[in-house]
Amino acid sequence: MSTETTTTSTEISAPSRFLNEITATSVIVKLYSGEEYHGILESIDGYMNVTMEDTKEYVHGKLIKTYNDVFIRGNNVLYISNV
Amino acid sequence: MSDSKSEPLDLFKVLLDEKVHVKLRGAREITGRLHAYDSHCNIVLSDAVETIYDTDANDQLISTQKKSEVIFVRGDSVILVSSPNDV
Amino acid sequence: MSTEQSSLSQILPLELIDKCIGSRIWVLLSGDKEFVGTLIGFDDFVNMVLEDVTEYDVDGSETQRKKILLSGNHITMLVPGGEGPKSVAVN
């Protein structure tokens, strides 16, 4: 539509492109408090709210819990990594 | 730009009227039946059991439980929401 | 006149980061967490995509990650070309 000038020179931002790449694949979501969630990325929104499937919760590298479907509120997210 | 077919908050829609497990800031967890939610993750649960974890003087993990018929949870303290049928 | 002057002397902070795309960058977060990686790109919130990443945690541990989307929320400082905490070891 309009020719908006973003800070990055590309049309679709690198974060959006990366998220499209990794949706429906295995990812690691790390929270600021240190917990890691390993699972399949189902969906994500602009707040970095995330839902994952077949998720394992690790604290200090130790498996704590498993979840089928899980929603993580975006403000807790430190990073999302591919595996 | 992301797929419009599914967004994270859709999971709440699926979980409405179901038992859910909510992990909160401050080493707290609540299980209860999901009655209502909004885009901030403010949540209303019924038949809720809140578990609060702490350590005693000997650094042993202790937990206390509180039951409520209805409870409102402010969204900013929510870390995680899931269905409770976990291992 | 004054606009011309400012356009010559000013470089916006995010322009500087834009110049770092494709290069190594050192990212410092609040709470003693640090990341070093190759900057792939970023958005208006300074959420950043990094590749070949080393994560330095509060406890001193290091973790390698291939590619991450780092939330801009807790970023405090960006060091272009920085090679991480070890490059500025203090005796």
UniProtKB/TrEMBL annotation, chain A:
One GO term (biological process): maturation of SSU-rRNA
Subcellular compartments: Cytoplasm; Nucleus
A Pfam family annotated for this UniProt entry: LSM
Gene3D superfamilies in alphabetical order: 2.30.30.100
One example GO MF annotation: RNA binding
Ribonucleoprotein is among the record's keywords: yes
Entry GO CC: nucleolus; P-body; sno(s)RNA-containing ribonucleoprotein complex; spliceosomal complex; U4/U6 x U5 tri-snRNP complex; U6 snRNP
Superkingdom, taxonomy of origin: Eukaryota
Domain Sm residue range list: 14-83
Record carries keyword Cytoplasm: yes
Keywords: Cytoplasm, mRNA processing, mRNA splicing, Nucleus, Ribonucleoprotein, RNA-binding, rRNA processing, Spliceosome, tRNA processing
SUPFAM superfamilies xrefs: Sm-like ribonucleoproteins (SSF50182)
Chief location bin: cytoplasm
Protein family: Belongs to the snRNP Sm proteins family. SmF/LSm6 subfamily.
The protein's name: Sm domain-containing protein
Automatic annotation (TrEMBL), chain B:
Presence of keyword RNA-binding: yes
Gene3D superfamilies assigned: 2.30.30.100
InterPro entries: Lsm3, LSM_dom_sf, Sm, Sm-like_LSM3, Sm_dom_euk/arc
Biological process annotations from GO: mRNA splicing, via spliceosome
Keywords recorded for this protein, A-Z: mRNA processing, mRNA splicing, Nucleus, Ribonucleoprotein, RNA-binding, Spliceosome
Location of this chain's protein in the cell: Nucleus
GO CC term (a single one): U4/U6 x U5 tri-snRNP complex
Keyword ATP-binding: no
Molecular function, one GO term: RNA binding
Domain Sm: 7-87
Family as reported in the entry's similarity comment: Belongs to the snRNP Sm proteins family.
Function text: Binds specifically to the 3'-terminal U-tract of U6 snRNA.
Assembly, per entry: LSm subunits form a heteromer with a doughnut shape.
Protein name according to UniProt: LSM complex subunit LSM3
Organism this protein belongs to: Wickerhamomyces pijperi (Yeast)
Gene designation per UniProt: LSM3
From TrEMBL, chain C:
SUPFAM superfamilies: Sm-like ribonucleoproteins
GO cellular component: Lsm1-7-Pat1 complex; spliceosomal complex; U4/U6 x U5 tri-snRNP complex; U6 snRNP
Assigned keywords, A-Z: Acetylation, mRNA processing, mRNA splicing, Nucleus, Ribonucleoprotein, RNA-binding, Spliceosome
Subcellular location(s) per record: Nucleus
Gene Ontology process terms (BP): mRNA splicing, via spliceosome
PANTHER family: U6 SNRNA-ASSOCIATED PROTEIN, U6 SNRNA-ASSOCIATED SM-LIKE PROTEIN LSM5
Family: Belongs to the snRNP Sm proteins family.
Quaternary structure (record): LSm subunits form a heteromer with a doughnut shape.
Protein name, per record: LSM complex subunit LSM5
Lineage: Eukaryota, Fungi, Dikarya, Ascomycota, Saccharomycotina
